[in-house]
Structure formats: structure tokens, C-alpha cells
Design goal:
single chain, about 350 residues, 7-stranded mixed beta sheet, 6-stranded parallel beta sheet, globular, binds beta-D-glucopyranose
């Protein structure tokens, strides 16, 4: 079968190639791939900055934002042939650490977790893939191709859960949220902000293209420029750019007692106007919390599937701005100005 593979740490080693059918030891459920979303992590892997092949192999099948249809449900009887499923990304570490033992693998303490398409287990960018039934999330059939948005939705579901948990350490009635970055993660964070009943604002550099309208049609405010210029003090900031300046500005801009949830990673930028000690002053004297969030556990996957099922389908459909066949994966990896979420489409969604 065809798969998109990469040699981790080797820039531009990505290629479409023939690989053996998925081995039964990868799970009793056999799935036909429909689509796989691309994100910044995939780009980092392709550029050789991130990613690990399975032990004893040199190449990794890419892809962690999956959607597929069950071909063989396996012996356990939970899934049926034809069900639409999305594969959970992370597996607990083998020790396991207390968090992984308790099913909270997203909070793994020893870093020995594995992740499909990212860290030591093959991903979902192949015509067929196998998965253990307990890691296959069945999704609402009516979502169709939009089920490919489930994985990024799980990431922001966790971020929201963490932010709310931290905020509730004291008396807290949040009204406003600022989301920085209007990529797929930022837009899905904004969607969840609306579902939480908050006044939502999104900040991005884009002055044109699909982002301003996507934000406004959610009933949220759209801002360009810097966090310092948004004109209000957000109770919550969900930071989705990973840009050092935006992070520093967010810590300063969030209201006293507020929470900044970080979902993006970056590195190396010089920060203007806020130094280490100032960060402490901001956080200490105003009871501010900065919480970093990565990945998602099964509770977040369940909540995210509910959130996606509740969302307006026509709005979600506007997030998937480009679909490319696997033979055009190189084109899929190139950023175009109107891109929000680009997916590699392996087969049609119809049963
Ligand atoms: C994925 C997460 C993963 C993280 C770090 C993100 O792109 O969505 O599932 O934990 O990368 O590898």
C-alpha cells in the first residue's frame, strides 16, 4: 500500500512509497484512510526538527490527524464495519508513570510516551492503518470529512479544561477570552470559547483571506496588530502562536487573576519590553497563571467529539480550505495564503 513516510532528523526526506500492509500487532481494528490533516508538527518533522522513527526502523509513516472507515472491526464488538473513526495519538509510557497509569498520558511525567506519526509509532498517512479498539474514537457519521478536525479539537479541549481548572482555584467568573492566532488551533479554541458562553476575541496578523470572516461568523471579534492594542483586559488568553513576543504581551495583558493557556511552541525570538523578573512581577502581584498544554487524553477526546458534533457544520467546513491527493503531498506541505487546514485525502468519505 502507499504511505507518506519521512526519515526523522533528515530534512526533506519525505516521500510517497510502497510499504507493507499494517501488521496485526498494531491493533485488531483495520481502517481505510479517508483523510489526514497537516499541522505545524508535521512540518517540523519534514524539516528534520522533530519526530522519531519506530525502534529499529529508519523511516516513520507521517500523520496524526486521522479520519478513516472501519474495514475490519476486530473481535471485541465495540466498532462495526463502516464506522467513521479517528485514532488517538498518544500511548502511555511503558513504566508507566503515575499519570500514564491513571489514563492521563497527556500529562506523562517521564517523556517515554509514544505518539502515532510523531514519536516512535507509525502514523496514519497510509492507505490502511490498524489500531487498538480502545484508541479508536467513533465519530458522528454526519460529520463526514469534518471528523478530520477532531484531533486538533482535542488539543484545545484540553487547553480549555486546564484553563478553567486553574481559574477556579479562586472565585472566578470569566467573561472574555482572547485567542492569539487564527490558525486551526486558534479557530477551534475560539469555537470552544463560544460554546463556553464567553465573549470571544481573536487576534491574528492576517488582514485578508478567510480568517477574519471565519472569526466574525462565529460571533467573535477579530483584531490585528499587537496584544497590547486589543483595547480590553481578557480574563483568559489562549495563546496559539508560540511567538515569544505574543506570549510576553499576553502575560502582561491578561486581567489580574487571569490565566494564559499556552498551546503553541516557538523559540529564539527576542522579546521587547518584558524581562524575566518582570514576568515574575506580573504573575506574582496580579495572581496570573501561565499554563502550558500539550496533547489530550481520552476524556478530552470524548469531550472534543461532543463539541464537534454540536458545532455548525458549514462553519467547520470552511476550516478545511484545501484537500490534496497523496501523490501531491509535497504541494499539501507548501503554505498558501488562503490555507487554514490542509488535508491529504486518501479516499472518498462515502461508504
Ligand atoms: C499533536 C499532539 C502532540 C504534540 C507533541 C501536536 O501537533 O497534536 O498530539 O502531543 O504535537 O508531539
Amino acid at each position: 500500500m502507499k504511505a507518506i513516510t519521512v526519515e526523522p532528523s533528515k530534512p526533506d526526506s519525505v516521500r510517497l512509497e510502497d510499504v507493507p500492509e499494517p501488521d496485526a500487532c498494531n491493533g485488531s481494528v483495520l481502517v481505510e484512510a479517508i483523510a489526514v490533516g497537516l499541522c505545524g508538527t508535521d512540518l517540523e518533522i519534514v524539516q528534520g526538527h522533530y519526530g522519531w522513527a519506530p525502534s529499529g526502523e529508519s523511516r516513520l509513516i507521517l500523520g496524526h490527524e486521522s479520519l478513516g472507515r472501519v474495514l475490519e472491526p476486530g473481535p471485541r464488538g465495540v466498532l462495526k464495519t463502516g464506522d467513521l473513526v479517528v485514532g488517538i495519538v498518544r500511548r502511555p509510557d511503558p513504566v508507566p508513570c503515575p499519570n500514564c497509569a491513571a489514563g492521563e498520558w497527556d500529562m506523562c511525567q517521564n517523556g517515554r510516551y509514544t505518539e502515532r506519526g510523531i514519536k516512535e509509532i507509525h502514523g496514519f498517512m497510509s492507505e490502511r492503518w490498524r489500531i487498538e479498539p480502545e484508541y479508536a474514537m467513533k465519530i458522528d457519521e454526519s460529520l463526514g470529512l469534518l471528523g478530520v478536525l477532531l484531533e486538533p479539537t482535542t488539543v484545545v479541549t484540553k487547553a480549555w479544561e486546564q484553563v478553567m481548572a486553574v481559574g477556579n482555584r479562586a472565585f472566578w467568573e470569566p467573561c472574555t477570552v482572547l485567542v492569539t492566532g487564527a490558525g486551526p488551533i486558534g479557530l477551534l479554541a475560539a469555537l470552544l470559547g463560544k460554546q463556553h458562553g464567553l465573549e470571544v476575541h481573536v487576534l491574528d496578523r492576517a488582514q485578508s483571506g478567510p480568517k477574519p470572516d471565519l472569526v466574525r461568523s462565529l460571533g467573535a471579534g477579530y483584531h490585528t496588530g499587537s496584544v497590547r492594542e486589543v483595547g480590553f483586559e481578557p480574563d483568559i488568553i489562549i495563546e496559539c502562536t508560540g511567538d515569544g513576543q505574543v506570549v510576553a504581551d499576553s502575560i502582561r495583558a491578561v486581567k489580574a487573576g487571569g490565566v494564559v493557556g499556552l498551546t503553541g511552541v516557538g523559540g529564539g525570538e527576542e522579546i521587547d519590553g518584558l524581562f524575566g523578573g518582570d514576568l515574575a512581577t506580573e504573575a506574582v502581584l496580579s495572581n496570573k497563571v501561565i499554563v502550558g498544554c500539550v496533547n489530550a487524553n481520552k476524556r478530552h477526546w470524548y469531550k472534543a467529539s461532543q463539541a464537534l458534533a454540536r458545532a455548525d457544520r458549514s462553519w467547520l467546513a470552511r476550516l478545511v480550505t484545501r484537500r490534496e491527493g497523496p501523490e501531491h503531498f509535497a504541494r499539501a506541505l507548501e503554505k498558501e495564503a488562503t490555507d487554514v487546514k490542509v488535508v491529504v485525502q486518501f479516499s472518498d468519505v462515502c461508504d
